[in-house]
Amino acid sequence: MKKVKVGTVQMSCVRDKQANFAKAVKAIREVAARGAQIVCLQELFASLYFCDTEDYENFKLAEAVPGPGTEALGKLAAELGVVIIASLFEKRTEGLYHNTTAVLDADGAYLGKYRKMHIPDDPAYYEKFYFTPGDMGYKVFATKYAKVGVLICWDQWYPEAARITALMGAEILFYPTAIGWASSQDDATNQEQYEAWQTIQRAHAVANGLHVVSVNRVGTEQNGAMKFWGGSFVSNPFGRLLYLAPHDREENAVVELDLSETDYYRTHWPFLRDRRIDSYQPITKRFLDEG
Hints:
Largest sheet: 6 strands, mixed
Radius of gyration: 18 Å
Strand content: 25-35%
Helix content: 25-40%
Shape: globular
CATH topology: Nitrilase/N-carbamoyl-D-aminoacid amidohydrolase
């Protein structure tokens, strides 16, 4: 057996970046004290979800990666002996920004970063205004405790991203997330949206035979127009929920994963064995038009 304990930090945010960072540090310390070895923070944990508007002032929230944020988290990781997965607003150079997640190993070493590949543009999610699509490809990080794959929020909806990351050797797939309900929506629409979001990610666990950890923010932002639905969860390699967070409050959790389950499920449900890789070339097309 190869067991590892993951910590999830589902929190609300305020306008003060330092206050959010301090809250995240406190939460990391809490789950580490409870035995967490790998801790994942939500998408853009150090700020409000600023992509609800197209405002040039918000670019001031960005920072270099690696930079001050990763340096502080690296020291914390080394102190606590934990791996930290941290989603940051990256300023690559003047006028070029990314939605980026950094991985700090348990000795504090900066292992690298993943830049969000799929960038949404929807009402209250104007990410194309801020973020250049990732150009580093998909990533797997060999941490002290496990090989982790990291994808970010909108990446969640794309089975290709999960598949490629799994094929690169990820043992756990982490999704830092910021997603919620419009306050104007009815309960039935809200429930349908949340269930689709959870279902697609649990399907990635099943299709690839690996644990999935999804960490979302919670709370009302955007002047009350958006309620982030929380609902962070951990799935085993066959889609079974090992942990589910509430929709309406902050919660930090520690969940033990048995990584040896990947071999069990991939052996008994050999989806990887039976892939017809010779037939998949059409997937690289935008759409299969006739003629």
